[in-house]
Amino acid sequence: MLAENIRDRQRRGKFIVxxxxxxxxxxxxxxxxxxxxxxxxxxxxxxxxxxxEGPVGVLIRQALSGRVQGxxxxxxxxxxxxxxxxxxxxxxxxxxxxxxxxxxxxxxLSSLAYQGRSLPLEWLKQINAEAIVPDLTIFISVDPVxxxxxxxxxxxxxxxxxxxxxxxxxxxxxxxxxxxxCEEGQNVLQLNGNRTLEIVSNEVLSKVQEYFMIDK
Length: 216
Ligand code: TMP
Hints:
Blueprint: H1 2-8, E1 15-19, H2 26-41, E2 45-49, H3 55-65, H4 73-97, E3 101-105, H5 108-114, H6 121-127, E4 136-141, H7 144-154, H8 164-183, E5 188-192, H9 197-212
Parallel strand pairs: 1-3, 1-4, 2-3, 4-5
Helix pairs in contact: 2-9, 3-4, 5-8
This protein binds thymidine-5'-phosphate (TMP).
Thymidine-5'-phosphate binds next to helix 5.
């Protein structure tokens, strides 16, 4: 089993995850962190995201955009979990084992926060049992009114979850989950994302530096 093998292996790279509701600027922040981390550490850094670019991730994107219809919430949750295992197996774990750092735009917490709106948390955790624990998760908390405005300025089409009532529920789930994970001893940071991308970005970089005491 993937989870057992991983526990036994020494992971030399750091696994950093960014989380937040749609329109929180995760891709922008991940891109900046990627450039900075490579420069600071001189190591290779894999910048990746979920849904991934693998076969299951492609199917999920089609479901999110409405090109594929009729998948129930439980089917979608299983697809997210399957995509995660595929992504871990083919990209994340090989990179960590080579000593590369990995930055992932969304991961397990997205499944718990989004699919947790309509599905039991325990079941979601079970189907994601193979997901290794990140070294650091950064949750960027932004009000859905702000994120939906950003999305509307950038695109005409709206994806499955991009509605204010849904994103409010998701944000609320994130708040609860982040608190739980902190209590369990996981490294999870919550940043106020209702500020300019530059200010948030500087905070992301300084927190990562603090956490890993990056040696050049
Ligand atoms: P994004 O690529 O713009 O972040 O969009 C991905 C969407 O998929 C976003 O609405 C969050 C959602 N999502 C889930 O619902 N569950 C998951 O496990 C993941 C990774 C993403």
